[in-house]
Fold these 2 entries.
Entry 1:
Amino acid sequence: MSDTVERHEFGAEVGRLLDLVVHALYSDREIFLRELVANAADAVDRRRFEALTQPIPALPADAAVRILPDKPGRTLTIADPGIGMGKEELARNLGTIARSGTRAFSQALAESKASDRPSLIGQFGVGFYSAFIVAERVEVVSRRAGSEEAWRWESEGQGAFTLAPATREAPGTDIVLHMRADAEEFLEPFRLHAIIRKWADHITVPITIAEDGKDTPANEGTALWRKPKPEISAEDYTAFYRHLGHYFDEPWSTLHWRAEGTTEFTALLFIPGMKPFEAFEGERRSRLRLHVRRMFITDEAELLPPWLRFVQGVVDSEDLPLNVSREMLQATPVLARIRRAVTGRVLSELKSRAKDAEGYATFWQNFGPMLKEGIWEDSEQRKEIAPLLRFRSSAVEGWTSLPDYVARMPEGQSAIYILVGDNIEALSRSTQLEGFRARGVEVLLLADQMDAFWPERLGEFEGKPVRSITQGNIDLSGLGTAPPEGKAPADVTRLLPLLKAALEAEISEVRATDRLVDSAAVLAAPAHGPDLALQRLLRRAGRPVGGENPVLEVNPRHPLVRRLAALADSGADLEEAAGTLLDLARVQDGDVPREPAEFARRMAAALASSL
Ligand SMILES: Nc1ncnc2c1ncn2[C@@H]1O[C@H](COP(=O)(O)OP(=O)(O)OP(=O)(O)O)[C@@H](O)[C@H]1O
């Protein structure tokens, strides 16, 4: 080795990842070609785009991704005239894992079915490393467009790579795979053609395969979305969907239309049939691809709001100039019009698919939390999104919606009641529901992370305010069917101030409630400030909760409260009993007592004297 060769260790996670990729994907080896060709085509697109504003040489008119098999030398080269990589970029892009850690990846791999594994590769951004599935050594020779220098990155995929100066006549990248003995099939041109047709046919950059000394075209490159609909089969759509997102399933919905009039564009969009990792863990913005008259421009134009970032696809504009630059994209009103039209179309698709309850449930389970983000942040669409939400309920099985809830509301009920917590099971057994259940008043149960936030933003639906049953003072009298009168309520006029005095530091108010049937006491949030669920979330995150202390509501018909009321009347000290009552209310909501050991001691003592 010459003096100029630098040796670098891979990031620790890369080493482990390489191992995983090679083993987990062995039976789907051919996807290495899809990954490398996709990277090469991206690099070509990037050079074309950057050349518009940066002082770098323009893309040659005949730019293509070339695949060059060499049987005698047992190498396969993928060459592109794209943007290229400088020394630092080679080390960073090919020496570390860009987007997500090995831990998340290996966990997902371990939990996935074998058939889902290849899709994980794309989703976790380890595409390049799939080269090592078929190669025992990989050389990358690259020259960044705009630079005179070229560099050679080389690795056997075991712990380290080297970097050395090299030469390359023009900007671009050659990936040279020194194939393993058992991977020689990938040096056969007919095999390579079949793989490209299957995986990369839709790439609009020309792809060629060298055969008998000449390059033969390998991809059709027809922008699928530009074909007349009758000429496109369901398989074509699915193949394109899989290509776009590295998916392996079927799209839940395919939207393909041409908009004419003031804004002209063609769009081909997909709503995935599964929940992609990226959409939730990755960055919060839409990666819809913007093309101008077939030519790829960018996937950073944010053609959909962040809460619709799960939608994949292409928008091909007729109105923008081919040499549209980043600055121009920010300024042009064309994009705003496209955005509005595309968002509206996706929403109306959801609206019509929502009529099929079962089919919509699949969508809802995958992407429901994102629609809730929409309620939170998109004031323009909030009203449109609200009827698309689905809920569990205290009164009906399965999913229900706000319009259905409103239709079921009995006369006299003026608000939509919700209860927010951590899990549906616990919520459906919650003490907070007792009085509502007894009166046959339905409550929607919400257990997504987002649920602590968005209801407040929605505020109301069809003129009915959305009210958390753990917040403020809800008067149930006159609502639904009155429950059978049990024992007469105790007179708590003396008890309430005593409890209040004993719990001064933790409770802002103590009041009697008719919300309870079998339980003695329950906590509620004050009418203003964060609701109980949000308070819990803030506490867990170690953030200040703010606002007033919670309210303690007591059930004057409950034996414990009756007894306390009698003691209060006789002037007994209720300090300790008040604390226990508060702890009981906390435990019911899934919180811990203020002093768990002290609480346990008191309970044990109470049990001992009563058994
Ligand atoms: N042929 C190439 N030309 C220029 N840059 C490349 C090329 N191949 C890879 N890269 C760079 O290396 C990075 C890492 O590539 P890799 O395939 O591992 O992940 P990715 O392309 O970011 O993710 P995914 O495979 O999911 O699309 C790319 O983002 C790109 O910046």
Entry 2:
Amino acid sequence: MRSDGSALNLRRWWRSAGFAWAGIRHAYRSQANFRIEVWAGVLALVVAALLRAPLAPVALACALVLGLELVNTALEAVVDLASPELHPLAKVAKDAAAGAVLIASAGALVVGLVVLLPPLWAWVGGWG
Ligand SMILES: Nc1ncnc2c1ncn2[C@@H]1O[C@H](COP(=O)(O)OP(=O)(O)OP(=O)(O)O)[C@@H](O)[C@H]1O
């Protein structure tokens, strides 16, 4: 009985992960900003790994930006569904969600500069 329940939960979790992955793929295909953020994050992580800089803050900053971009995409879809015509509240919702992504991106840029610049500087200095 117990193992049946666990197997069922695992199957349900796997199914939910499939839906989540479909959402990520949709955002990647339809949102140019999401594609830019994905590859900027990959680049930042590769540079951090090559410079032996701490990976955790860079990964966390990337996850925050990508996660908020997905929430922004979801909110845009819901607003377009609920309010296809222009409406001041639809504007507030979309602008606020876009603002959240902007703030997270600015924070990620600061994290990237603080974590990556010192080892990059030392590496460049090593060549001089
Ligand atoms: N239904 C609406 N009512 C009022 N203003 C809207 C509405 N839809 C969009 N806007 C305004 O236009 C801006 C751009 O909206 P849009 O849906 O094109 O998103 P976007 O920022 O271009 O995102 P993306 O390019 O990722 O789809 C919004 O931030 C908002 O200010």
